[in-house]
Amino acid sequence: MPSLNSWAYLFLKGSTSSMQATNLLILLLGFGVLAFYLGRGRSLAIAAPLGGIRKLHSLPSYYGMHAALWCALPSLFLLGLWLMFDESVINSLVIGSVAADIAPIDTATYNLLLNKVANLADGILPRKGQTESILAASDHMQSLRVISSWSLTALLLALSTAGLFWGWSKTASDFRARPAVEKVMQNLLLACACLAIFTTLGIVLSVLFESIQFFRSVPIYDFVFGLEWSPQTAIREDQVGSSGSFGAVPLFVGTLLVSAVAMVVAVPVGLMSAIYLAEYASKNVRNYAKPALEVLAGIPTVVYGFFAALTVAPFLRDLGSSFGLTVSSESALAAGGVMGIMIIPFISSLADDVITAVPQSMRDGSLAMGATKSETVRRVVIPAALPGIVGGIMLAVSRAIGETMIVVMAAGMAAKLTANPLESVTTVTVQIVTLLTGDQEFDSPKTLAAFALGLMLFTVTLLLNIFALHIVKKYREQYE
Amino acid sequence: MSKPVDHLNKIKHSLRRRNRAEARFRWYGRVAVFIGLAAVAVLFGDIISKGHGAFQATYINLSVAYNQDLIGVDNLTDPDELAMGNWQALPKAALRAQFPEVSGRSDKRKLSGLLSSGAGYDLKDRLLANPLLLGETESIWLLADDDIDTYYKSWLAGDAYAARLTDKQIIWIEQLHQQGQIRLQLNTNLFTRGDSREPEQAGIRGAVMGSLLTLVLTLMLSFPIGVSAAIYLEEFAPKNRWTDFIEVNINNLAAVPSIIFGLLGLAIFINFFHVPRSVPIVGGLVLTLMTLPTIIITSRAAIKSVPPSIRQAALGMGASKYQTVLHHVLPLALPGMLTGAIIGMAQALGETAPLLMIGMVAFIVDIPGSFTDPATVLPVQIFLWADSPERAFIEKTSAAIMVLLTFLIIMNTSAVWLRKRLERRW
């Protein structure tokens, strides 16, 4: 089974080199199949004079697999590495050898030059009207690309043929093919399992690096404790509000406000419906009501966002004005309320799990003492299930904090420091989306700020999750 | 000492109170369940009532004369001439012929505003398909402008919305209606076209194709990787700190906000590996990383549910550990794994936020045909349309949501069906 490296990077390039990569991949797979049959055939040929395949250490197909793995795996690995690095190597070679008159002085001109040369080499830009040195650079790039693609093909062919021959020649009656194949497979499985770690690592590194860069231009203290958020950076020196201010407190407050509204809706409704369905409802009601509630969990958040922005928000605004209240049309109440509806099934299913895990004997004991059913639930079942419920609520809070689409569509853009749910607030996720959608250069504080916000979001939700999962796990062990 | 009767009274009193509390508590529960179910009903009702209209579009019947002089094209095989042709003149002339009394610049402009700005190009396509029509006249149904569409639908429903029309336009529409020259037809554009700035010409084909390509890639990557990881963790992993660490990682990744995966995709795939923006490849990679935890967790549950006796029997017959897993455990766990994969794909299909980060939010008219074409996906299309100011896009957005929800309902019910049908109880 090809690992992510080899699979993914095949596709990671533009049209021409991705075509080449796809073709090479198909070629390699064909080679692998060929190697399988050659290896198997050789083992059968060896076994025949000895008295059948009983005399082999492993089944013939394992000898085939062994040859196929030797043939395909190293080549796939090489292909992956090559595709990952060939562009950057070619770029640095080309830019390193350009004529002095166009040599780049900083990163901006470097990128500009690189784009221009690459576009010329791809034939996107017309060659007419370009200077000699640029044309020379683009020709250089083109020739390097041709060399790269030919040498890649040649190397891969050589490597897979050598692997095939090696795997094939190892075939012998006493060769332990099955353990060898199984060992390779075990390592592949392990690599797949480790991908989770690499993903986490990738998240941490990508957010951390950009954040550190951001904190170089904006002190971390100003970011975490600053009270004003207006991330416009000036294009001209004399522009009004030219120095963007990156105080994230209004965003944190807005996020907490929206999440709090969501929790006020979701916790009572989710908890009570879980209790009702687990303790009171007949089997019939439970069988229908539970999946119907779970439908809410399957609805995409963008749908909730549409619902919040176009139905709930205008409704609340009109309702408010009929009571003489001014409700903003992007109020935290609308976004939070709809988010709460989204979280209801999350809380109710987690609460249902922990409530049904409370041993029946505890209920029986309480009922036998003459307590009513609701007293049993309130005084015995809920306290017993409390750690699990708290864990579930914390997971729900982490979800509310990280929820994006509802707030992007229904909450405001302007950062305001307020605790009034009728006003419009903005959240961390809204700002990340606003700062990063559209074209932007990658090292302005404006885009880097998004990564700093992402770091905050990741840290907070990670801590909440670890803590909550820990509580839930502990609780489960208690009654197992 | 008080008398026993007092005690009895006290107990009776408190019993009544306690029973009332019991009834109240029960009602709280009923109300909570009702709120949840009402939310489902209101949400679906709202979307359907807003969106059902979009499956029909207003068409106006006109007799169009394919006049060579008007278009300025003689030779239909010459691409240069076709590109220079004045195709918009065709529907304009047809409208003038229908309402010869209209005069004055602004009125004429209002008149041609009855039809979609794409009507001329539709006629061009029709002419190219039937070159014999050149010089002929035919009666044909042409797509109306979105404002006309909104007005006509609301007028038919008895609650006319005329905010963006002039009085004359309303009179024209009424005339057309009396003559049976305006009607609602099935809106095929919605399913056959890509995005457009003009609501009446916008369709979800591009977004559906983008979603399909992205999902195919996601499934191709996340299912094999997820299943392999689950097999390793469940069957082979030694109990040590390293595997504990992997487990903690997987559980936490399942709860990381999806937008963080978008940041990861932006920083790693786009800025580090220079994968082009907006293409299904990046979308697929990001969604793969996002759905992997779900798939791993459900696959592990499926492997766990295979009873140990099966493994012991295979091992007892002399199978190796791998043969046991590949030949016996995996086939038996497959239905559960497939269920998990479908649920993971449903999650990926509905995901929007990470895709905004990696540029799949661009305005793309062309329908993507490969993994390297710029594309958008259905939820992002919904987001884009919901953001558009035109009133007609509200209807379109709701219709796109209905399509998305239909896909999701199909996926989820098939997962439930698969589980019921194929999963064995041991």
Structure description:
- The complex is a heterodimer of chains A (480) and B (426).
- Chain A has 480 residues and is mostly helical.
- In chain A, helix 1 packs across helix 3 (60-96).
- Chain A has helices at 4-10, 15-50, 60-96, 107-122, 132-170, 177-217, 220-225, 249-280, 283-298, 301-322, 332-357, 360-368, 373-402, 405-410, 428-436, 445-479; strands at residues 229-230, 245-246.
- Chain B contains 18 helices and three strands.
- In chain B, helix 1 (4-51) packs across helix 18 (392-422) and helix 15 (321-350) packs antiparallel against helix 18.
- At the A-B interface, helix 1, helix 6, helix 8, helix 9 and helix 10 of A face helix 1, helix 10, helix 11, helix 12 and helix 13 of B.
Keyword list:
heterodimer, A: 480 residues, mainly alpha, MetI-like fold, 2 domains, two-stranded antiparallel sheet, 2 strands, 1% strand, flat, disordered N terminus, B: 426 residues, 3 domains, three-stranded antiparallel beta sheet, 18 helices, 3 strands, 5% strand
Q: Secondary-structure blueprint of this entry?
A:
The complex is a heterodimer of chains A (480) and B (426).
Chain A: H1 4-10, H2 15-50, H3 60-96, H4 107-122, H5 132-170, H6 177-217, H7 220-225, E1 229-230, E2 245-246, H8 249-280, H9 283-298, H10 301-322, H11 332-357, H12 360-368, H13 373-402, H14 405-410, H15 428-436, H16 445-479
Antiparallel strand pairs in A: 1-2
Chain B: H1 4-51, E1 56-65, H2 68-71, H3 79-84, H4 89-98, H5 105-112, H6 119-129, E2 137-143, H7 146-156, H8 167-178, E3 182-186, H9 189-192, H10 205-236, H11 241-255, H12 258-270, H13 280-304, H14 308-316, H15 321-350, H16 353-357, H17 378-387, H18 392-422
Antiparallel strand pairs in B: 1-2, 1-3
Helix pairs in contact in B: 1-18, 10-13, 10-15, 10-17, 11-13, 12-13, 13-15, 14-15, 15-18, 17-18
